[in-house]
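User: I'm writing a tutorial on reading structure tokens. Could you give me a worked example: one chain, its sequence, then its tokens, then a sentence or two explaining what the tokens reveal?
Assistant: Sure. Here is the example chain.
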Amino acid sequence: MPRSMRTIAVAALALVATAACQDQSAEPNPKPPAPQQQPAAQAPAQQQAPAAQAPAEQPAAAPAAPAAEVSPAAMAEAKSTFDSVCVTCHGATGEGNGPASAGFPVKPRAFSDPEWQKSVTDEHIRKVIVEGGPAVGKSPLMPGNPQLKDKPEVVNGLVQMIRGFGKK
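And here are its predicted structure tokens:
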């Protein structure tokens, strides 16, 4: 394959792969999520959703239970996964400013946003990690990670990392 064709092919693949982490919370008609159990103290004012979105799109209360313990090995795998999969769109500091996000019309989720941190449960974050954006009424370009379905400790490590961005 000539060098110019190879360059175009690599660029196209990179564009498709990186676009997959886009958060499209501004979609005009988002698909409602599957029903989830939510704490009784849900407050609609805590939701970070435009008026056009369905209010049930994001759970409105942070988790009440303490975070699950994560072994050093699982945390190392979680960090490796974040660095190789999530950083491209969400950035190394979780600001939603990864290198692929520059051309996105709607920026990826900023994990550091304190209002967003308060508005979602750990279970919601786990669901997005494993099943992708469509599982919670978000962008179909945010891919799931089905390879983590049988690795709950690694997923818990990713949740801890995401929660950690909100404490800075």
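What the tokens reveal: Helices lie at 3-19, 72-90, 114-119, 122-131, 152-165. The chain has five helices and no strands.
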